[in-house]
Amino acid sequence: MQNSLFDDFEGADEPVAAREPEPAPAQKKRAPARTTKVLPAPPDPVLQALARELPSNLRLGTSSWHFPGWACMVWEGEYEQSVLSKHGLAAYAQHPLFRSVSIDRSFYKPLTATQFAVYAAQVPEDFRFTVKAPSLVADAMVRGEDGRGMQANPAFLDPALAAMEFVQPALDGLGHKVGALVFQLSPLPGPMLARMPEILGRLGTMLRALPALRPVAPDGVIAVEVRNPEFLTPAFCDVLRDAGATYCLGLHPKLPPIEAQLPLLRALWPGPLVCRWNLNRLHGAYGYEDAKALYEPFDKLVDVDPATRATLARVIVGATGAGQRAYVTISNKAEGSAPQTVQALAEEIHRQLAAKR
């Protein structure tokens, strides 16, 4: 099973004005909504039927939900970003394919249990959250407003802060709706990379000290996502396994392509699959802002990546078919429109499942 599952393939929101998306042929333009109640797009029988064909232990979703350009795909009507940020989650969770979402704002400032509870109250019982750990403990550097590292972060990988400012509030607020709690480690400076055994030791100490998820969130998993390929070693794998954590498959140009990351998943097998598809490789390691400028308002696919879809679908089919949970969230910067990428990935998963029957 292990080899077949991971066979390598060859080959704070401020209101912003949304650009008007191009309406689909059968859709009419809608007047901007003037209420704080966000209405979901009308049910799509095609998406509902597709959702019923997907594995029950797969939860697909997007990175956040506050995008005005998703009108007619996720929202009925047009809303300002600030309205969607505060009131859009309940409507988002009614999309047939969305059984998860990544809360990314927690990276910039820790969220309280009360804030998490507000999110949990807006989604169905079967919904699960992926949540990013705060930079307070996940970023090796204290950064200025321009994003440049100014000095070493003394709280980096601090076990007490990681538990108190992240894991425990998430458990208290989200309860059984915790899916994946992700420590996305920002790029390490060169001097730290030269001390990788020390960094791995600190990471292992932190992970082993975290509160257990299972008593509150039986489906929950701790995952570590990295931005330095130097992490992708057997020693890193040992740290994760010893702490009962897993690797978050990070689809980002700072890392090797998905195929090159699969050996790490093989080494950790069996276990849940966590993946965050962050940025199309076309834009390079520092192309986040370029992708954002090119893809806004995120209402259509621009740079389609069928190879990544096919490989990711293959891993999902293998993991879920073996009874493992899978949490996969996708950014608008992956192909241009996260809802459309989720749909395309779901269709590829369905195709591969049908081919196995």
Please tell me about this protein's structure.
The chain has 14 helices and ten strands. The protein is α/β, with parallel strands linked by helices and 357 residues long. The chain has a domain of 236 residues. The strands form two sheets. Strands 1-2-3-6-7-8-9-10 form an eight-stranded parallel β-barrel, surrounded by five helices. Helix 5 packs parallel to helix 7, helix 7 crosses helix 9 and helix 13 crosses helix 14. It starts with a helix and ends with a helix.
Q: Give the ordered list of helices and strands.
A: HHEHHEHEHEEHEHHEHEHEHHEH
Kindly report how far apart the N and C termini lie.
17 Å
Strand content: 5-15%
What share of the residues lie within helices? 25-40%
Mean pLDDT: 91
Largest beta-sheet characterization: 8 strands, parallel, barrel
Radius of gyration: 20 Å
Can you tell me the residue ranges where pLDDT is under 50 for at least 5 consecutive residues?
A: 1-34
Instruction: State the shape.
Output: globular
The strand order across the widest sheet is: 1-2-3-6-7-8-9-10
Structural class: alpha/beta
How many individual β-strands? 10
Number of helices: 14
Protein name: DUF72 domain-containing protein
InterPro entries: DUF72 (IPR002763), UPF0759_sf (IPR036520)
Organism: Variovorax ureilyticus
Region (Disordered): 1-42
